[in-house]
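R.M. (postdoc): so does anyone remember the format we settled on? I'll just put the structure tokens first.
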């Protein structure tokens, strides 16, 4: 008697093949009767087997239906909708694009065109819908990388129509959008795009991708340049291009009150001196000092910032520039400064994260009243100190 082949009941592609095509087809029809997404997926797979044109037509029909729909989508149905969107996107990328790149790009742009209408009618407190479109943006721009000039015109038109959305998607595309394609997209846009804030933001993101610093700079308004954080970004870009004097000028543009730095100038008169500036601005100013050849001034500023903020990255940067053995003495001085810092929590956080557990335990023992105050990190700190410094751990836990 012939032995029956062993068939595993574990679900896998290999085990299911033993059922045979007719039985699998029956099961899929049965499952699809109660699952609209599965039925649509099966139709897409059948269309892909026939030809790229039929697949494109089938996808286009579904996108048209979604664009025309006006009914609200509840949070219960949101997942189904996003699954449906992603299934059609995958068919565009995986099945249509290899055979018909131009058609795939045009249809994927139509897929992205659905966003504004869907956002208005989908209940989405978790932000799953915008996340799905942002996650798809690298695929859109990867297709654009190899598209012809004619095919790329559809994308240029889409950028012109919806600059705010595409500004976000360009940022989300990361490395998928390269300098050459960014330049091609810029060349397709005209001056009217500059007339709105969303348009300028779109152009600025494209200029960044195209590595066109002068264009990027031209799109920064004087009001924006007055923001310390934006001034720091400008200065870093100019430094990277070797334009040191311009980097200094960019930083100084944030020293006068402007609409975007009111939070640093509020309550100050012009005679009270420069406004309080942000960490990004201060870090950029240090880099500019180094580039200008003022290394000692830069080091002095690094130490001052460390004394004020107990910033470990600033201290590491400071120490890395000291001669051998001088860094050991400076580190001891830094630990001593932390021990006397008025903000106990900031000091202990710095010492624990450095890590300098001996100095952290000494701080706890020297300032037990402050150490006993309830803090979210106390249990973690106590756990890390408990083996070698049990007394300090006990103070943190049972103050």
């Amino acid at each position: 008697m012939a032995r029956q082949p062993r068939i595993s009941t574990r679900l896998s592609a290999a085990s299911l093949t033993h059922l045979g095509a007719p039985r699998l087809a029956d099961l899929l029809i049965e499952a699809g009767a109660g699952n609209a997404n599965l039925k649509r997926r099966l139709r897409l797979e059948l269309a892909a087997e026939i030809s790229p044109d039929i697949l494109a037509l089938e996808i286009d029909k579904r996108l048209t239906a979604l664009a025309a729909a006006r009914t609200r989508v509840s949070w219960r149905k949101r997942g189904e909708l996003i699954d449906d969107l992603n299934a059609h996107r995958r068919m565009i990328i995986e099945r249509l694009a290899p055979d018909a790149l131009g058609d795939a790009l045009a249809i994927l742009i139509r897929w992205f065109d659905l966003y504004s209408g869907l956002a208005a009618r989908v209940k989405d407190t978790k932000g799953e819908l915008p996340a799905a479109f942002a996650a798809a943006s690298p695929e859109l721009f990867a297709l654009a990388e190899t598209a012809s000039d004619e095919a790329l015109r559809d994308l240029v038109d889409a950028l012109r129509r919806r600059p705010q959305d595409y500004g976000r998607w360009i940022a989300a595309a990361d490395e998928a959008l390269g300098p050459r394609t960014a330049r091609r997209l810029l060349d397709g846009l005209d001056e009217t795009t500059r007339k709105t804030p969303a348009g300028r933001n779109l152009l600025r993101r494209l200029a960044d991708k195209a590595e066109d610093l002068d264009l990027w700079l031209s799109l920064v308004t004087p009001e924006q340049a007055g923001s310390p954080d934006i001034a720091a970004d400008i200065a870093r870009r100019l430094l990277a291009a070797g334009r040191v004097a311009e980097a200094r000028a960019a930083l100084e543009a944030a020293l006068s009150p402007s609409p975007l730095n009111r939070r640093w100038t509020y309550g100050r008169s012009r005679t009270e001196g420069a406004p309080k500036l942000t960490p990004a601005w201060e870090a950029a100013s240090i880099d500019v000092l180094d580039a200008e050849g003022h290394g000692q001034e830069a080091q002095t500023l690094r130490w001052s910032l460390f004394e004020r903020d107990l910033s470990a990255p600033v201290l590491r940067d400071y120490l890395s520039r000291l001669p051998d053995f001088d860094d050991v003495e400076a580190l001891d001085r830094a630990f001593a400064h932390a021990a006397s810092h008025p903000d106990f929590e900031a000091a202990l956080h710095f010492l624990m994260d450095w890590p300098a557990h001996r100095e952290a335990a000494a701080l706890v023992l020297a300032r037990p009243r402050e150490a006993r105050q309830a803090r979210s990190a106390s249990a973690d700190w106590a756990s890390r100190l408990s083996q070698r410094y049990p007394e300090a751990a006990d103070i943190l836990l049972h103050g």
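R.M.: ...and that's the designed sequence above, right after the tokens. Also worth knowing: DSSP finds 25 helices and no strands in the chain. The two ends are 79 Å apart (CA to CA).
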